[in-house]
Amino acid sequence: MSKIMLPALLSIQTGINEPRYVSIMGIRKAARKELRVIKVDELSLSPDDLSARTFVEELFLPPETEGAKMIEGDPSKVAEEILRIMKEKGVSV
What we know:
This protein is mainly α. Helices cover 29% and strands 0% of the residues.
């Protein structure tokens, strides 16, 4: 267990690492579903229909950013720094 001095500001991204649990009924229903396999010949598609319609023109990694900035100090100084950063970024306060 970790301890933190109060007052403190925590920023938590919602939705990250939220597991999805499948119900037992859902698992049983999925197990009973018929899996129909269709061969390509049965689809009556032309060679043009099967050719790729997209191509990769360029592939690159996003630029690296600074990441998070840890602000330390007494609460009033931290609050002032947060307000300064928000104003600098154009966030209305």
